[in-house]
């Protein structure tokens, strides 16, 4: 069985966020389709300074923004899976070269039985998404990074891509396991120590 991970903000690592990106034309940054004729993209640094802008960063809401070094690694592991959109970081003393990560594949892969939903009756149209997202064990996506159909906020990577990014020492994201065969985190926690 393959392992898959949801890229999420590493909340234990001091880092800077970006405000929501804007472009000349209204754009859905998580649509998982090639974006054309959108003009210059820009985003300001978040108002609160929690640390440096990391190689693996996030702009509000759930928009991945990465450094040029990350682009090279992802393109080497999974060519053609991502459209790289240059983004201008405003209010930065030395504007770094950053790219908005537009994953081009939307994969139907949710394991409905293993995912845990905010509604008691399971997934409800228009309700908040999964509390615990799980993807099917038989999943064999054509690329190593993709968005999830019906849960587009989720950016999923394969173990192969996760390891490549970790091997290069990139920081800013944490990797939440989402394969159906992985137990929920509260199942693997140690029980409280009785006093």
Care to describe what's here?
The protein has one domain. The relative contact order is 0.24. The protein is built from three helices and ten strands, in the order ββββαβββββαβα. It is α+β, with helices and mostly antiparallel strands. It is globular, with a radius of gyration of 17 Å. The model has no long low-confidence stretch (mean pLDDT about 85). Strand 3 (about 55-60) and strand 4 form a beta hairpin. A five-stranded mixed β-sheet has the order 7-8-9-1-10. Strands 2-5-6-4-3 form a five-stranded mixed β-sheet, covered by helices on one side. It has helices at about 70-75, 160-165, 185-190, and strands at about 5-10, 40-45, 55-60, 65, 80-90, 100-105, 105, 145-150, 150-160, 175. Helix 1 (about 70-75) packs antiparallel against helix 2 (about 160-165).
Task: Tag the structure with descriptive keywords.
single chain; 195 residues; alpha+beta; 5-stranded mixed beta sheet; 10 strands; 27% strand
**Beta-strand residue percentage:** 25-35%
Label the overall shape: globular
Instruction: State the secondary-structure class.
Output: alpha+beta
The major pleated sheet works out as: 5 strands, mixed
Number of helices: 3
- Tell me the helix content: 10-25%
Given as residue ranges, the uncertain stretches (5+ residues, pLDDT < 50) are none
Question: Rg, please?
Answer: 17 Å
User: How many β-strand runs?
Assistant: 10
Overall residue-averaged pLDDT value: 83
Strand order of the largest sheet: 7-8-9-1-10
How many domains would you count in the coordinates? 1
Through-space gap between termini:
40 Å
Order of helices and strands: EEEEHEEEEEHEH
């Amino acid at each position: 069985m393959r392992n898959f991970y949801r890229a999420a903000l590493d909340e234990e690592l001091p880092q800077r966020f970006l405000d929501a990106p804007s472009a000349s034309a209204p754009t859905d940054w998580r649509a998982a389709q090639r974006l054309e004729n959108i003009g210059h993209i820009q985003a300001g640094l978040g108002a609160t300074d929690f640390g440096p802008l990391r190689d693996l960063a996030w702009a509000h809401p759930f928009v991945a923004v990465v450094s040029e070094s990350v682009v090279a690694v992802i393109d080497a592991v999974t060519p053609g899976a991502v459209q790289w959109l240059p983004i201008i970081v405003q209010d930065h003393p030395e504007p770094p070269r950053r790219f908005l990560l537009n994953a081009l594949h939307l994969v139907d892969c949710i394991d409905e039985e293993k995912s845990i939903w905010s509604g008691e009756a399971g997934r409800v149209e228009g309700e908040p998404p999964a509390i615990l997202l799980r993807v099917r064990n038989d999943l064999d996506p054509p690329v190593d990074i993709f968005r999830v159909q019906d849960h587009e906020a989720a950016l999923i990577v394969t173990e192969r891509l996760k390891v490549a990014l970790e091997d290069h020492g990139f920081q800013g994201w944490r990797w939440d396991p989402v394969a159906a065969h992985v137990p929920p985190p509260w199942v693997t926690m140690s029980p409280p120590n009785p006093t």
